Amino acid sequence: MERAGKTIEQAFILVHKLKRRTAMSKITRTGDYVSLTIYDISAELLHEFSEYVVKPHYPGGIGPAIKDLMRKAVQEQKQKGKKE
Predict the structure, then answer these.
(1) How many CA atoms does the CB half-sphere of 65 hold within 13 Å?
(2) How far apart are CA 54 and CA 62, in angstroms?
(3) Which one in 8, 9, 22, 64 has a CA-CA gap of 20 to 30 Å to 74?
(4) CA geometry: angle at 12 spanning 42 and 36, to 5°?
(5) CA gap 36, 38 in Å, rounded
(6) Per-residue pLDDT, 83
(7) CB 20 within 8 A of CB 32
(8) Mean pLDDT, the chain, as a whole number?
(9) What DSSP assignment string belongs to 57-71?
(10) Alpha-carbon distance 13 to 18, whole Å?
(11) Rounded CA gap, 43 and 60, in Å?
């Protein structure tokens, strides 16, 4: 659990640094979790994401869809790093 806490802390710091550079998101930390608010997403992109990704594959809504896609992206990058 300690390692996971460090990783979350590192991610939080990185996102906080990115947040300073752009006003595209808002991050609020609660314990080991963060809440993320994303600004400036086009209505069309959100609608298409909801129609083609969320509704057919994620009955829990957009939150679980985004978390799953984030996990998949991280796994892809880890695998990519192992191959190099």
Answers:
(1) 15
(2) 6
(3) 22
(4) 30
(5) 6
(6) 79
(7) no
(8) 81
(9) H-TT-HHHHHHHHHH
(10) 9
(11) 20
pTM, entire model: 0.62
Residues of the chain where predicted confidence (pLDDT) is lower than 50: 1-4
Distance CA 24, CA 38 (A): 6
Spatial distance between the Cα atoms of 36 and 16, rounded to a whole number of angstroms: 11
Rounded (10°) CA dihedral 50, 54, 57, 63: 180
Q: Angle 10-12-17 (CA atoms, 0-180°, nearest 5)? A: 95
Helices (H), 1-84: 2-21, 43-49, 55-57, 62-83
pLDDT for the residue 9: 67
Locus of tokens 């695998």: 79
Q: Which two tokens stand for residue 5?
A: 């806490």
